[in-house]
Amino acid sequence: xxxxxxxxxxxxxxxxxxxxxxxxxxxxxxxxxxxxxxxxxxxxxxxxxxxxxxxxxxxxxxxxxxxxxxxxxxxxxxxxxxxxxxxxxxxxxxxxxxxxxxxxxxxxxxxxxxxxxxxxxxxxxxxxxxxxxxxxxxxxxxxxxxxxxxxxxxxxxxxxxxxxxxxxxxxxxxxxxxxxxxxxxxxxxxxxxxxxxxxxxxxxxxxxxxxxxxxxxxxxxxxxxxxxxxxxxxxxxxxxxx
Length: 242
Hints:
This protein is α+β, with helices and mostly antiparallel strands. About 50% of the residues lie in helices and about 20% in strands.
């Protein structure tokens, strides 16, 4: 895509990988020779941020923001095994007496330093993915309670059919996105954790079961709800109170 065409994206909405609109393109950052190196985004809360070009995908009229976790995780899952293989190949060459011990030691130290830095970066991404997984679970739980309360109010006649249908569709779509996002972060965390352990076959993450139920020609999506909180009411006594 030519440089001039990229400016046509200014003002376009930006979505994350799961279809959620998170902001819009505000401007671009260019090098002195005219190469695009960054995108300025305005998020929904009005905050501006500068993001590297590799975090943005331009596909036709759509602009997609790839999170730092996803982008860096993909790079690290390629780089770490590659450095391991190079170091192992170096050791094999030494054993076959194809390189001098001094050359081996120098290159081995170099590979070890790079690998140590990459593993530190990978652990940071693993920790950040864990935080995002918790955030997604909180969102799923909140949405599940919202669905349950909507169903209750609709059942007792306090929410009319039109309002119920619109609200239910909105909650259903949000729940699907949150569940997909959580699963994606779990898979990313699993892959990186496996790479750090030297295992190239990461275990598939466990996900919440989503139950579908036919409701008025719509598919209801709910997740298993946690136990509701216990509310204790304290009655005020006299002027002092409790």
